[in-house]
Amino acid sequence: MKIRNGIICIYHSFDVGKEIHLGKVEKLLGAVPKTSPLVLKKITPRYVQYRQPPLLVSLGSTRIKIGEKVFDAKTVAKIYDFGVITVVNRMPFSGDLRGLRETSALIWSELPAIEKSAAAVVERIKQEISGFVMNPAEETFSEDYVVYQVNRFDRPAGAEELVRKYAGEITSILASEPRGLSTQEVKETFKKSISYSGEDLLVTSWNAAFVYDTEECYDTLDVLEYANIELLELRVYDSFLDKGLDKAYDHIRKPEHVFGSKYSGVSKELSEMRLDVSEVMEKVENSLKLVGEQYLARVHESASSALHLGAWKEMVNRKLGLVQDLYALLSEQIQMTQLIILEVLVIALIAAELALALWK
Question: What is this structure's pTM?
Answer without folding.
Answer: 0.86
